[in-house]
Every structure is written in C-alpha cells, then in structure tokens.
From TrEMBL:
Its EC number is 3.1.4.52. Residues 1-65 form the GGDEF domain. InterPro entries: Biofilm_reg_signaling (IPR052155), EAL_dom (IPR001633), EAL_sf (IPR035919), GGDEF_dom (IPR000160), Nucleotide_cyclase (IPR029787), Rev_trsase/Diguanyl_cyclase (IPR043128). This is cyclic-guanylate-specific phosphodiesterase. It is an enzyme of class 3 (hydrolase). Residues 74-327 form the EAL domain. CDD domains: EAL (cd01948), GGDEF (cd01949). The keyword Isomerase does not apply. SUPFAM superfamilies: EAL domain-like (SSF141868), Nucleotide cyclase (SSF55073). It comes from Candidatus Reidiella endopervernicosa. Gene3D superfamilies: 3.30.70.270, EAL domain. Keywords: c-di-GMP. GO terms for molecular function: cyclic-guanylate-specific phosphodiesterase activity. The keyword Zinc-finger does not apply.
C-alpha cells in the first residue's frame, strides 16, 4: 500500500501550465507492537519517515526499536558536540598540497578533528553531517576558518608563506557568511587574502542561483581563491566552470586511486585536467598514494597533488618541520 501511494503521488501533474513532479517518503509503525498510544505511534512513524528520507527519499520504512537507540545516540552526540565546542575538544590537522613540478608544498588543507573525553577520537564522517543537520556547522566552520588562517599566518612569520585551504559548507553561506566577515577576520589575524582558499562542493554551484553567483563574485573580489572539492562525484554541469569564478578543482580520490589500471578512470582524469586547463583553472588530485599515480598525473600536467604519498595530515608544528625539510631538500 505504501508503494502504491508513492507511485501515485510521483505521477506528473500540471501546475499553472507547467509539468510538475513531487515525491513522498513514508514512515510506518504498527499498533500494538510498536506503541500503545497515539503520541508514541506518531513519533515512531515520524522517525521511520526520516529514515526513508535518509535512504534516498521516495521510499518507505517500518519503525524498529533500533531507530530509537540511534536517535538517542545522535541526540547525545549533538549535546556532546555543543559542549565540545565550549571545552575546546576540537583541533586541526593539516595535509600538504604539493606542486607536481618542484615538489614544494604550496597549500595545506585544514582538517577538523574531535577528541572526545570519553569516546576518544571521533572521525569527521560521524560528526560533520550531524553538525550540518543541527546548525552547529556555522559555529564549528567559523572556528575552523579562523584558527586555520591564524595558523597560516604563523607559518608565514616563520618564513613559510603557505596557502591554507578550508572546507566551507553551503549552510554557512546560507546562514549569512559574508565576504566582509571573512575579510575582517583576515585583517585581524594578518593573513593575506591570496593565501586563503575556500573549498566548496559541486552542489553549491549546481544550485546556480543569482545569490550564489553574487556571493562567489564578492569572495573573488577580495583575493580569496575558490576551489571545487571532490570534482566529478556530483551531477556535474560543466558549464558552471565558465559561469562561476573558480580557481581550482580537486579531483576526487575515487578516480585517482585506479588511474594506473582502470582505463575509464584514467580517461576521466585526463579529461578533467584538459578541461580545467582550457578554462585556466588549476587542478589538485586527491588521494595520491603511489609512485605510479604520481607519474601518471605528472605526465598529464596535473598541477598539484594531495595524499599519503607525500604526507598524512599533520599537527601544525609537525607541518612546520615538514616545510623546513622540503625547503632544505
């Protein structure tokens, strides 16, 4: 019955002369097995519906008691995250981004980590999505941006003016993160705008709204660079490379890891590099781990690489040592 409802709702209809499509996600709970009163039944069905949405939408899910446990865990993790931001439990590591020609570190990507007092190191894939859903990404994202820029200034004072790359959530932009606020912060820490690169996702560009274009252009006017992260993993509309002021695209590691033995991945990576070159956009290949991958990327004029081949993410003081070693070499 649930599938019949979804199928019926998904049929196109005409709205003010336009063909329109909608979908439905359905959560199902059963009386008396799951609950004995209306309030609990509604709450259980709501939980199951959100699980259907998480699974890709236009689907249905039955309530299970493990959902209760998972919801409690997420609520507790969100509570811990709020407290963790107050208690300075988050810290940054930095992964070098290396020029493929002279093998010098030209940027470092700031990566946020969470050292939980009870559960130890919590991986980003557990808390970043929760931060986005809860709205905590605005506070966490600003903390990352401010501290990464301050750290880049310290490297510069030590004689190593390395650029810093920081991931930016589209939710931060929609919440009002302005170019003026970023410039004010850069002035306060004393970092040149040209040393900051903001990494955004393809999803933001695919929105293709005038508001997005205006925001991107105001950022570019400050001198801050823009990078498209995990390029090729979304439903790319290549026209946005012409429309939007992008300086760098990063090829997702999923394509890079098999370039030496997968013809399709090799062809795709070569095409991305060629496309970027035609638009005068620099390319970073992520997830480089082997000599063969590096050789392939050099042969096809990839500008920069990032990955374990050169270095894992490092603490700030260890990255400074890495920079000194590179300069000596």
């Amino acid at each position: 019955m649930a599938q019949k409802i979804i199928n019926k709702i998904s049929e196109p209809f005409i709205l003010e002369g336009n063909e329109t499509f909608i979908g439905a996600s359905i959560g199902i709970t059963l009386y008396p097995d799951d609950a004995s009163d209306a309030d609990d039944l509604i709450r259980n069905a709501d939980m199951a519906m959100y699980r259907a949405k998480d699974a890709g939408r236009n689907d249905y899910r039955f309530f299970t008691f493990t959902m209760n446990e998972q919801v409690f865990e997420r609520m507790q993790l969100e509570k811990d995250m709020r407290a963790g931001l107050e208690r300075n439990e988050f810290f940054l590591e930095y992964q070098p981004i290396v020029d493929t020609v002279n093998e010098q570190t030209v940027h470092a990507e700031a990566l946020v980590r969470w050292q939980h007092p009870e559960h130890g190191l919590i991986p980003p894939d557990r808390f970043i999505s929760l931060a986005e859903e809860s709205g905590l990404i605005n506070q966490l994202g600003w903390w990352v941006l401010e501290n990464a820029c301050a750290q880049a200034k310290q490297w510069s004072l030590n004689g190593y003016p390395v650029g810093i790359s920081v991931n930016l959530s589209s939710r931060q932009i929609k919440a009002g993160l302005s170019s003026e606020k970023i410039v004010t912060m850069l002035n306060e820490v004393g970092l040149e705008p040209t040393l900051l690169t903001l990494e955004i996702t393809e999803g933001l560009l695919l929105d293709d709204t005038e508001e997005t274009l205006l925001w991107l252009n105001t950022i570019k006017q400050t001198g801050v660079k823009l990078s498209v992260d995990d390029f090729g993993t979304g439903f790319s509309s290549l026209s946005y490379l012409k429309r939007f002021p992008v300086n760098i695209i990063k090829i997702d590691k999923g394509f890079v890891q098999d370039v030496t033995h997968d013809h399709d991945d090799a062809t795709l990576v070569k095409a991305i590099i060629g496309l970027a070159e035609s638009f005068n956009i620099n390319v970073v290949a992520e997830g480089v781990e082997t000599e063969g991958q590096l050789k392939f990327l050099r042969q096809h004029n990839c500008d920069m690489i990032q990955g374990f081949y050169y270095s894992r993410p490092l603490a700030a003081e260890n990255l400074l040592g890495y920079l000194k070693q590179g300069a000596a070499a």
